[in-house]
UniProtKB/TrEMBL annotation:
GO molecular function, one term: oxidoreductase activity
CDD domains on file: DsbA_FrnE
SUPFAM superfamilies in the record: Thioredoxin-like (SSF52833)
Protein name: DsbA family oxidoreductase
DSBA-like thioredoxin domain: residues covered: 14-214
Record-linked Pfam families: DSBA
Species of provenance: Spongiactinospora rosea
InterPro entries linked: DSBA-like_thioredoxin_dom (IPR001853), Thioredoxin-like_sf (IPR036249)
Lineage per the UniProt record: Bacteria, Bacillati, Actinomycetota, Actinomycetes, Streptosporangiales
Length: 227
């Protein structure tokens, strides 16, 4: 999926981002994408739409240490996991992002169901971003329904509605459909970004890399145009 035909100047561009809560590269890549957009004078042309992609659908609902979660799915030792996490932490901090290695993980399916609701309200990316930022900075337990409802309310959503969703199974089919669609489009992991349904970008690109993709689908930023 890659076309170089750009949209007319001023037209709206939808960027779909498949991601999962506990994915460190999603956390970094999300901020890089936002930085690339913010550098353009026409930043308001771009809308990021959150799409669900569980990396570990079989993860337990009970909280487990981050290193235990990684070893369960990838193997290795605690020492190896901590070394990789410290490297990730150092890289994130160089980019101005806080990064806690003392995280607890659990199944993210219910969170994705709430993200689907938030998306219906036009706040899907903002809600997911707030939750993920809180998770990686160590300020939030996103597996606590009350904490999740609190973030939702701060994002202008209905906290009571969030609790209702968490208590049932609403949006379950849509979470599964999102993941299936991502796989069909070529995602083998996340982050996976699709710009304007024409250009697919797997992995966490650098800010400059995302900027090139934005130019590919939207044309040069206005101040770069030759009169």
């Amino acid at each position: 999926m890659s076309e170089r035909v750009t949209q007319p100047e001023g037209s709206q561009i939808v960027i779909e981002m498949w991601a999962d809560l506990g994915c460190p590269w999603c956390y970094v890549g999300k901020h890089r994408l936002q930085a690339a957009i913010s550098q353009r004078p026409d930043a308001d042309r771009f809308t990021i739409r959150m799409r669900s992609f569980e990396l570990d659908p079989g993860a337990p609902r009970e909280l487990e240490k981050n290193e235990d979660s990684f070893i369960r799915t990838h193997g290795g030792t605690v020492a190896h996991v901590l070394q990789a996490e410290r490297q990730m932490q150092a890289m994130a901090r160089k980019e101005g992002l806080e990064y806690s290695i003392d995280r607890l993980n659990a199944n993210t399916f219910d969170l994705h169901r709430v993200v689907q609701y938030a998306g219906d309200q036009g706040r899907g990316f903002e809600f997911f971003s707030d939750v993920q930022d809180g998770f990686f900075t160590g300020a939030l337990n996103p597996f606590d329904p009350d904490a999740l409802a609190g973030v939702a309310e701060s994002a202008g959503l209905d906290g009571r509605r969030v609790r209702e969703i968490l208590a049932g199974d609403e949006y379950a089919d849509r979470v599964r459909a999102d993941r299936a669609e991502g796989l069909e489009l070529g995602a083998t992991g996340v982050p996976f970004v699709v710009l304007d349904r024409r250009v697919a970008a797997p992995g966490a690109r650098k800010v400059a890399g995302y900027a090139q993709l934005l130019e590919q689908v939207a044309g040069p930023a206005p101040e770069e145009r030759v009169s």
